[in-house]
Amino acid sequence: MTTLASATDTLTRDALTVLQPGFTGTSAPDWLLRRLGEGLASVGLFGRNIASPEQLASLTAQLRAERDDVLVAIDEEGGDVTRLEVRTGSSFPGNHALGAIDDTELTREVAAELGRRLAACGVNFNWAPSADVNSNPANPIIGVRSFGADPQLVARHTAAYVTGLQSAGVAACTKHFPGHGDTAVDSHLALPRIDADPAVLAERELAPFRAAIAANTRAVMSAHILVSALDPDRPATLSRRVLTDLLRGDLGYDGLIVTDGMEMQAVAATYGIERGSVLAIAAGADAICVGGGLADDETVRRLRDALVTAVRTGELPEERLADAAARVRALARWSASAAPSAEGRAARTDVGLLAARRAVRVTGADRFTPLTDPPYVAALTPVASIAVGDETPWGVAAELARLLPGTETGSFAGEDAGPAALAAAGSRRIVAVVRDEHRHPWMATALDTLLTARPDTLVVEMGVPQAAPRGALHLATHGAARVCGRAAAEIIAGTR
């Protein structure tokens, strides 16, 4: 591809500054280091970039050797969505567990400890928390990533999370504006639409973002969703009505606006990533997130040149691009100088497990005797969402095997899941582990089969506990993080 401008002119530097690209590998490639020298100000990290805390610290040091104020971003929500512990499962329960406990001080402590660990590895920008109100039980992409379905609960915990994370010197990026909770479509795959009226949006979707802004969130991430009452023509990421008129104007937000991943199909399939990026900056976004799927120098060049061309042809005002770049640099300065407070520096290494234990809701404990023999764990496994990914282990089998050696497990899905699990379990006591039973008819049918044949089956729900509790013992963990599995296993084995 032809380079449209030299790497030293102001316009090109501004175009690079507003990009937040990803890359592959556990060390920075030469092209990325070169782009940092040319004006790139941010880098996004994913699970593929992380092997250990030590390796991550080495990687971020490598980036800072090229640009000392670089924004190193990560999608680390804790709970089901973890990059820091992508291969083991998170040490922190996710938002839904924290919302179920409803202790804002605990939420602040969890976020502060997560921020401390990120900062220790050189990460200073977190694409979290999710401030979405999970008002639609059929939502396939938010679910346990949300604090809950009550707007005021979500608002107070969003504010607590922002405060805790930023106390550790890590910038929070509250998402997905103006609210992704009332959707039944995953924006990674298609364009979701919300048709709620303005009064509902103001009371439900916007309440947590108002709270985040009051808590001084350093960034807000836009959603690739069409909210007809706000803009019937363009998704929020590309809408001036949403980003400039509503977020900047009505809500008075003056921090960084970041897009969700531009390669997600809600935008890419209709507008393409180049035009989508130009429209996003023109609408009021300041930074373009890309790199979850497209993670190479070619993508950076394509987006840089699209922005430069748009300015030169008059489609994108040069002052709008310059303003966006200035906001990125302002956040970079804050992150470079933000000293963690005393509370942010104090390690609370056990706070995630303590929170996970408090989040478990137990039904049937009055007639339950803890297991002493190793059971068979039947994991009724749905397809993982793209946000969660399929790399991260989940369930209770590993933790039960530690407490009850000899525990066996299998994964089952589809119409024959119930009979197959019964056959595999043999005479062993069955622990059935589900994730969002209410969204998967085959899963409910499998549980029917197991409970009819084996009424003493224990059920662990690790998604949103929307379906009625059933089983000899029913545990709702409100998330599938590793610590949630441990908390459930302790109850089953009677060690807590």
What does this structure look like?
The chain is built from 19 helices and 16 strands. It is of the alpha/beta class and 496 residues long. Strands 2-3-4-5-7-9 form a 6-stranded parallel sheet. A 6-stranded mixed sheet has the order 11-16-15-14-12-13, with helices on one face. Strands 1-10 form a two-stranded parallel ribbon. Helix 18 links the parallel strand 14 (430-434) and strand 15.
Give a brief description.
The chain has 496 residues and is α/β, with parallel strands linked by helices. The chain has helices at residues 10-17, 30-38, 53-66, 95-101, 104-120, 151-167, 198-203, 207-214, 240-250, 265-271, 273-283, 297-312, 318-337, 342-345, 351-359, 397-403, 417-425, 441-453, 482-493; strands at residues 19-20, 42-45, 71-74, 125-126, 171-177, 193-194, 219-222, 226-227, 256-258, 288-289, 361-363, 376-380, 408-412, 430-434, 458-461, 473-476.
Radius of gyration: 23 Å
Sheet-strand content, in percent, reads 5-15%
Q: Shape, please? A: globular
Structure classification: alpha/beta
Output mean pLDDT. 94
What oligomerization state is this entry in? single chain
User: Largest beta sheet: what is the strand line-up?
Assistant: 2-3-4-5-7-9
Q: Count of DSSP E strands?
A: 16
Low-pLDDT regions: 1-7
Ends apart, CA distance between termini:
61 Å
Helix content bin: 40-55%
Main sheet makeup: 6 strands, parallel
Topology:
Blueprint (H helix, E strand, L loop, with lengths): L9 H8 L1 E2 L9 H9 L3 E4 L7 H14 L4 E4 L20 H7 L2 H17 L4 E2 L24 H17 L3 E7 L15 E2 L3 H6 L3 H8 L4 E4 L3 E2 L12 H11 L5 E3 L6 H7 L1 H11 L4 E2 L7 H16 L5 H20 L4 H4 L5 H9 L1 E3 L12 E5 L16 H7 L4 E5 L4 H9 L4 E5 L6 H13 L4 E4 L11 E4 L5 H12 L3
Parallel strand pairs: 1-10, 2-3, 3-4, 4-5, 5-7, 6-8, 7-9, 12-13, 12-14, 14-15, 15-16
Antiparallel strand pairs: 11-16
Helix pairs in contact: 1-12, 1-13, 4-15, 5-6, 6-8, 11-12, 15-19, 16-19, 17-18
